[in-house]
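Researcher: Please predict.
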Amino acid sequence: QYETKGGPGAGRLTELGREQARMAGRHIVARMRADPALKKGMLRMTSSVLDRAVETADIMQAEIEAELAWVDVPVTAMPAELKVMFSRNIDADYAEMLVDEGCEPFVHKDPSNLLQPSVQIKIGSRIRVAISGGSSSSSAVPLSDVVGSSKFFSVLSSLALVKRLPDRFEGFSCDGCETATMEDIHWSDHAENNSVLFCNDCFAKGPKHKKLKEGDTCSRASHGELQSPFRAPNDKNLNEARPTQQIYDRRLRDKKDYGTLNSQILKDHAAVEAAFNAHMHRAVDHKKVKRKNREDVIHFTFSASGTGKKHERYWTAKEFARLDGATEGDRVVFPFLLDDDAKKRTEGRFLMDAIAGTEFKGVGDKAALQAVVEEKAKQLKKKVPEKQMEIFVVHQNIIRYMFMRLMQFDTTAWLNFGGGNCTMTQLRIKRTGDVSCDFFGDHGSMMPVSHYTFNKSPDV
């Protein structure tokens, strides 16, 4: 809820609005505590650039990041002899413990945790455990004695800040490795003419490019600023808008141009469509993902007979099956290889060296190699994709349009849907591209009914 009438606070959240934002953030925290997979999949949050949206996102961010700092670790990952000592009761459900002396430092790694893929546990580490009624024991006890039936405990590890370049450098990519995710930019001495730039890694290795002149030092740099890894840059295309013409609007129904397009709607529509295309996508962008990063490919290594030159390919099992292999001694010889995209052939004599990092130099049967590849492919299919959560703090008009667009409904009916202040809409974009809506305009947070509002009116 924000001030709509006037005064110094016009366009800013009311006190009730700030409380709604805190409750929305705490609701997400409660969900993360109940579902560790959702917490690990938390990736980013962004908002429009409107003051009220930014303030709402700031309040929610503080609540969510405080929980993300507690990294969930499986109890089974800890040494059985680990002992902890009571520090304080956090609330009625959680107690904080300290790792006692005698613990050898170790690092727990979990690649599925998108923001905290590793956490160190050592003497003095702060641990949160769920204990009914809390605990006040002052002596060191085994961790297993205090976690009870819980499968997880949490270790405090604040989110490490990341460097991000200012918005004006959006669209630039490294001319060495082509990455668009750069902490700093190292510019060619003649960048104003050749547009050549490098990321930190390529600069450290020694910048190379056909446009670089001899003696180019690439000494000028643009540096990123430290920011939260969870909070993404705010997007002006997510601002409040009338995204398309509407089939019902009581404020326009008596006007002669009711139901027709106008310049403002066309302008708003273009902005919201740009936001839709930028933010609504599958976890993997199949248009941009590199072949070696695909989840359905296997890494193959071959060597050229005679020269020993290595050839690496990332193919699917079906693509590998297209190769012809002949047994020569204890090796399989291939008369050709497919290119990186498994389309064009390269003639020659090639020997199989390794499949998915495992050496296969002593296998002389193509059928046996194919069986290995098929088994690797089955293992890849069994991998269950992890959750990836993104939060958008935007006006209800944007939510309604995005919902209609994702569900492939008639977008001109966007005003047929409601939604109050700080309500939540959750949509799932599956890896197949299918979209499901879990809930729309949901008040299922910690808000009492007295906090259900739309603008400054009750919404019960």
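Model: The longest strand covers residues 345-355.
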